[in-house]
Amino acid sequence: MEFTYRRTHRASPGLLFDCLTQPEHLARFWGPDGTTTSSIVVDLRAGGAFETTMVSPGGQYTMRAVYLEVDRPARLAWSEPDTGMVTTITFTDLGDGLTEVVTHQASVPDAFGSPEARSGFETSLRRFDEYVAQMT
Amino acid sequence: MTAIADELSTTFAALADPTRRAILARLAAGEATVGQLAEPFALTQQAISKHIKVLERAGLVARSRAAQARPCRIEPAGLDEVAEWVTGQRQTWHERYDRLDRYLGTL
């Protein structure tokens, strides 16, 4: 089960990658509409944490994720242990200053398809657990 | 994990298997007994029954109690939940990238 979303932006792959991975950029557009992003944690390496806390009039919500792949400017992936979702974003230079950004989300059962994916995911989850343990 | 996220992951896990997706595709054409469902697959009725149980737990398939053969039918509400999730994700990312475009314009 999966979801794919394609967009073309007028910017280089590198700038788009930076916008999606640097807190000062993310704070300006991550959203959703009607919320403010009160806290963004980015530890930009495979196994590193990616957390965004969004505040709306109705309360606040923290997305907790762990990076699976960090390959600037081509590819970025993270998983959300709370929901079992894996998000992969690829950046393709189309020339003429345009970049295609493909966002793909899949549930863990699909991501577990290959043994390599499974072992990568489990390693990341273990690192994430260690990261959380050291914080508490 | 919220109850909804938990239900959704049960549904996704059920849909992750190609045999179960094929069973759903067959049931989309109309209800069928386990025996009828087993015919196109190189699987025993027992193996098909296991897949049906997973689909039932995920709320994707229901079985009639009236007839002795207990035909299976698709449960559209289960798939609606998946469709709603996909629509919600599409909306979230669409708006996010709209905001990113506006932000890029200010750089």
Explain what the structure shows:
The complex is a heterodimer of chains A (136) and B (107). Chain A has 136 residues and is an alpha+beta fold. Helix content of chain A is 29%, strand content 46%. Chain A has helices at residues 13-19, 23-29, 108-111, 115-135, and strands at 2-9, 36-42, 49-56, 59-71, 75-80, 85-95, 98-107. Chain A starts with a strand and ends with a helix. Residues 109-114, 124-129 and 131-136 of chain A have low confidence and may be disordered. Chain B has a single domain, classed as Arc Repressor Mutant, subunit A (Orthogonal Bundle), CATH 1.10.10.10. Chain B is 68% helix and 6% strand. Chain B is built from five helices and two strands, in the order ααααββα. In chain B, helix 1 packs antiparallel against helix 4. Chain B is elongated, with a radius of gyration of 19 Å. The A-B interface holds A 1, 3, 5, 7, 9-11, 15-16, 19, 25, 28-33, 82-84, 101, 103, 105, 107-110 and B 1, 5, 8-9, 11-13, 15-16, 82, 85-86, 89-90, 92-97, 99-104, 107.
